[in-house]
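Postdoc handover notes: sequence design on the structure in folder B. Input C-alpha coordinates:
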Protein backbone atom coordinates (compact mmCIF):
# COMPACT_ATOMS: atom_id res chain seq x y z
CA UNK A 1 0.00 0.00 0.00
CA UNK A 2 3.01 2.32 0.39
CA UNK A 3 4.59 4.14 -2.56
CA UNK A 4 7.37 2.28 -4.36
CA UNK A 5 10.77 1.72 -2.78
CA UNK A 6 12.64 4.32 -4.84
CA UNK A 7 10.16 7.06 -3.92
CA UNK A 8 10.20 6.16 -0.23
CA UNK A 9 14.00 5.86 -0.10
CA UNK A 10 14.44 9.25 -1.79
CA UNK A 11 12.00 10.96 0.59
CA UNK A 12 13.57 9.46 3.71
CA UNK A 13 17.09 10.27 2.44
CA UNK A 14 16.12 13.95 2.42
CA UNK A 15 15.72 13.58 6.19
CA UNK A 16 18.99 11.69 6.64
CA UNK A 17 17.20 8.38 7.11
CA UNK A 18 18.54 5.61 4.86
CA UNK A 19 16.02 2.84 4.21
CA UNK A 20 17.22 -0.43 2.69
CA UNK A 21 14.98 -2.45 0.41
CA UNK A 22 14.69 -5.06 3.16
CA UNK A 23 13.50 -2.43 5.65
CA UNK A 24 11.06 -1.07 3.08
CA UNK A 25 9.55 -4.53 2.59
CA UNK A 26 9.06 -4.81 6.35
CA UNK A 27 7.39 -1.38 6.38
CA UNK A 28 5.06 -2.47 3.59
CA UNK A 29 4.01 -5.61 5.48
CA UNK A 30 3.61 -3.68 8.73
CA UNK A 31 1.47 -0.97 7.11
CA UNK A 32 -0.86 -3.42 5.39
CA UNK A 33 -1.28 -5.47 8.57
CA UNK A 34 -1.93 -2.32 10.64
CA UNK A 35 -4.74 -1.17 8.34
CA UNK A 36 -6.31 -4.63 8.31
CA UNK A 37 -6.03 -5.09 12.08
CA UNK A 38 -7.28 -1.58 12.79
CA UNK A 39 -10.67 -2.50 11.34
CA UNK A 40 -11.35 -4.75 14.33
CA UNK A 41 -9.14 -3.17 17.02
CA UNK A 42 -8.76 0.61 17.18
CA UNK A 43 -5.01 1.26 17.19
CA UNK A 44 -4.57 4.47 15.21
CA UNK A 45 -6.57 7.22 13.53
CA UNK A 46 -3.95 7.41 10.76
CA UNK A 47 -4.72 4.68 8.22
CA UNK A 48 -4.01 6.24 4.83
CA UNK A 49 -0.78 5.26 3.09
CA UNK A 50 0.66 8.78 3.08
CA UNK A 51 -0.09 9.30 6.75
CA UNK A 52 1.34 5.95 7.80
CA UNK A 53 4.48 6.60 5.78
CA UNK A 54 5.17 10.11 7.05
CA UNK A 55 3.42 10.47 10.42
CA UNK A 56 4.24 6.99 11.67
CA UNK A 57 7.28 5.53 9.90
CA UNK A 58 9.28 8.64 9.04
CA UNK A 59 8.51 10.40 12.31
CA UNK A 60 9.54 7.31 14.30
CA UNK A 61 12.72 6.73 12.32
CA UNK A 62 13.68 10.39 12.70
CA UNK A 63 14.20 9.61 16.36
CA UNK A 64 17.29 7.66 15.26
CA UNK A 65 18.50 10.45 12.98
CA UNK A 66 17.81 13.35 15.35
CA UNK A 67 18.86 11.62 18.58
CA UNK A 68 21.79 9.48 17.47
CA UNK A 69 24.04 10.85 20.23
CA UNK A 70 21.46 9.80 22.86
CA UNK A 71 21.12 6.28 21.46
CA UNK A 72 24.57 4.63 21.64
CA UNK A 73 25.34 1.32 19.98
CA UNK A 74 23.51 -1.52 21.73
CA UNK A 75 21.49 0.80 23.97
CA UNK A 76 18.55 -0.52 26.00
CA UNK A 77 15.47 1.48 25.02
CA UNK A 78 12.01 1.46 26.59
CA UNK A 79 9.05 2.77 24.60
CA UNK A 80 6.19 3.69 26.96
CA UNK A 81 2.63 3.54 25.68
CA UNK A 82 3.67 1.93 22.41
CA UNK A 83 0.13 1.58 21.05
CA UNK A 84 0.45 0.45 17.43
CA UNK A 85 4.23 0.29 17.83
CA UNK A 86 5.37 3.84 17.18
CA UNK A 87 8.10 4.92 17.57
CA UNK A 88 9.58 1.68 18.97
CA UNK A 89 9.12 -0.77 16.11
CA UNK A 90 10.32 1.49 13.26
CA UNK A 91 13.19 2.66 15.47
CA UNK A 92 14.26 -0.97 15.80
CA UNK A 93 13.97 -1.45 12.03
CA UNK A 94 16.40 1.37 11.33
CA UNK A 95 18.60 0.61 14.38
CA UNK A 96 18.63 -3.20 14.80
CA UNK A 97 21.49 -2.90 17.33
CA UNK A 98 19.11 -1.40 19.90
CA UNK A 99 17.47 -3.59 22.54
CA UNK A 100 13.92 -2.26 22.50
CA UNK A 101 11.16 -3.00 24.99
CA UNK A 102 7.60 -1.92 24.21
CA UNK A 103 5.28 -1.30 27.17
CA UNK A 104 1.55 -0.79 26.91
CA UNK A 105 -1.29 -1.00 29.42
CA UNK A 106 -3.76 -2.62 26.99
CA UNK A 107 -3.22 -6.29 26.26
CA UNK A 108 -4.97 -6.06 22.86
CA UNK A 109 -2.16 -3.79 21.70
CA UNK A 110 0.48 -6.22 22.95
CA UNK A 111 -1.23 -9.04 21.04
CA UNK A 112 -1.00 -6.90 17.90
CA UNK A 113 2.65 -6.01 18.51
CA UNK A 114 3.60 -9.65 19.00
CA UNK A 115 2.01 -10.46 15.64
CA UNK A 116 3.91 -7.57 14.07
CA UNK A 117 7.11 -9.04 15.48
CA UNK A 118 6.34 -12.40 13.90
CA UNK A 119 5.48 -10.70 10.60
CA UNK A 120 8.51 -8.45 10.20
CA UNK A 121 11.07 -10.39 12.20
CA UNK A 122 11.60 -7.77 14.88
CA UNK A 123 13.64 -8.51 17.99
CA UNK A 124 11.79 -6.20 20.39
CA UNK A 125 10.15 -7.33 23.62
CA UNK A 126 6.47 -6.45 24.12
CA UNK A 127 5.15 -6.20 27.69
CA UNK A 128 1.65 -5.73 29.02
CA UNK A 129 1.58 -3.52 32.10
CA UNK A 130 1.21 -0.07 33.58
CA UNK A 131 4.23 2.21 33.52
CA UNK A 132 3.84 3.31 37.14
CA UNK A 133 3.83 -0.34 38.30
CA UNK A 134 6.72 -1.73 36.25
CA UNK A 135 8.89 1.20 37.38
CA UNK A 136 8.86 -0.25 40.89
CA UNK A 137 10.40 -3.54 39.71
CA UNK A 138 14.21 -3.82 40.16
CA UNK A 139 14.62 -5.41 36.73
CA UNK A 140 13.23 -2.28 35.07
CA UNK A 141 13.82 0.65 37.40
CA UNK A 142 16.71 2.81 36.16
CA UNK A 143 17.83 0.07 33.77
CA UNK A 144 17.40 1.81 30.40
CA UNK A 145 19.78 4.01 28.43
CA UNK A 146 16.84 5.81 26.86
CA UNK A 147 13.10 5.98 27.32
CA UNK A 148 10.82 7.15 24.52
CA UNK A 149 7.18 8.16 24.48
CA UNK A 150 5.03 9.69 21.77
CA UNK A 151 1.87 11.63 22.68
CA UNK A 152 1.10 9.44 25.70
CA UNK A 153 0.22 12.05 28.34
CA UNK A 154 0.88 15.65 29.34
CA UNK A 155 4.55 16.24 30.06
CA UNK A 156 4.36 16.68 33.88
CA UNK A 157 2.63 13.29 34.17
CA UNK A 158 4.73 11.66 31.48
CA UNK A 159 7.91 12.69 33.30
CA UNK A 160 6.81 10.71 36.35
CA UNK A 161 5.93 7.70 34.21
CA UNK A 162 9.21 7.81 32.27
CA UNK A 163 12.18 9.10 34.28
CA UNK A 164 12.18 6.32 36.92
CA UNK A 165 13.18 3.90 34.14
CA UNK A 166 16.17 5.92 32.91
CA UNK A 167 19.59 5.06 34.30
CA UNK A 168 21.84 7.89 35.48
CA UNK A 169 23.50 9.37 32.41
CA UNK A 170 20.69 8.17 30.14
CA UNK A 171 17.95 10.16 28.40
CA UNK A 172 14.22 10.56 28.26
CA UNK A 173 13.14 11.46 24.71
CA UNK A 174 9.56 12.71 24.55
CA UNK A 175 8.03 13.20 21.09
CA UNK A 176 5.40 15.93 21.00
CA UNK A 177 3.58 18.40 18.80
CA UNK A 178 4.61 22.07 18.87
CA UNK A 179 1.76 23.26 21.09
CA UNK A 180 2.90 21.55 24.31
CA UNK A 181 5.53 23.50 26.22
CA UNK A 182 8.12 21.92 28.51
CA UNK A 183 7.94 24.65 31.18
CA UNK A 184 5.06 23.09 33.19
CA UNK A 185 7.11 19.89 33.51
CA UNK A 186 10.40 21.43 34.63
CA UNK A 187 9.68 21.08 38.35
CA UNK A 188 8.72 17.42 37.92
CA UNK A 189 11.85 16.79 35.87
CA UNK A 190 14.08 18.25 38.59
CA UNK A 191 12.31 16.32 41.36
CA UNK A 192 12.74 13.07 39.41
CA UNK A 193 16.47 13.54 38.83
CA UNK A 194 16.44 14.98 35.32
CA UNK A 195 17.80 18.02 33.53
CA UNK A 196 16.15 19.42 30.40
CA UNK A 197 18.46 19.97 27.45
CA UNK A 198 17.88 21.85 24.21
CA UNK A 199 14.77 20.49 22.45
CA UNK A 200 14.97 19.21 18.90
CA UNK A 201 12.49 20.78 16.50
CA UNK A 202 11.70 19.68 12.96
CA UNK A 203 8.87 19.46 10.44
CA UNK A 204 7.52 16.48 8.54
CA UNK A 205 6.74 16.62 4.81
CA UNK A 206 3.72 18.86 4.43
CA UNK A 207 4.78 21.11 7.28
CA UNK A 208 3.54 19.29 10.38
CA UNK A 209 5.79 20.50 13.20
CA UNK A 210 7.29 18.19 15.79
CA UNK A 211 9.52 18.54 18.85
CA UNK A 212 11.58 16.03 20.80
CA UNK A 213 12.11 17.12 24.39
CA UNK A 214 15.45 15.79 25.61
CA UNK A 215 15.95 15.22 29.32
CA UNK A 216 19.18 13.84 30.78
CA UNK A 217 18.99 11.72 33.93
CA UNK A 218 21.49 13.28 36.33
CA UNK A 219 20.62 11.56 39.62
CA UNK A 220 18.54 8.68 40.92
CA UNK A 221 14.78 9.14 41.11
CA UNK A 222 13.52 9.14 44.73
CA UNK A 223 12.00 5.77 45.56
CA UNK A 224 8.54 7.22 46.29
CA UNK A 225 8.13 7.94 42.56
CA UNK A 226 6.24 7.08 40.51
CA UNK A 227 3.09 7.35 42.57
CA UNK A 228 -0.07 5.47 41.58
CA UNK A 229 -1.88 6.64 38.46
CA UNK A 230 -4.68 8.35 40.38
CA UNK A 231 -2.22 10.51 42.31
CA UNK A 232 -0.22 11.29 39.17
CA UNK A 233 -3.34 12.46 37.31
CA UNK A 234 -4.96 14.33 40.19
CA UNK A 235 -1.86 16.14 41.37
CA UNK A 236 0.99 16.24 38.82
CA UNK A 237 4.38 17.16 40.27
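Designed sequence:
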Amino acid sequence: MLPGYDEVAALFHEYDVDVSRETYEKMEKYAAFLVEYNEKVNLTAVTDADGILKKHFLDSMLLAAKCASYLPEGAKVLDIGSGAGFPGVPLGMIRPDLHITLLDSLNKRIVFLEQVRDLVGGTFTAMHGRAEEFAKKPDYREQFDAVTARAVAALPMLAEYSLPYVKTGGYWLSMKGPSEELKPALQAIRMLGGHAEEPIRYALPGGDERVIYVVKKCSNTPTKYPRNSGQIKQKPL
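Context for whoever picks this up: The mean pLDDT is 96. Don't rerun without checking with the PI first.
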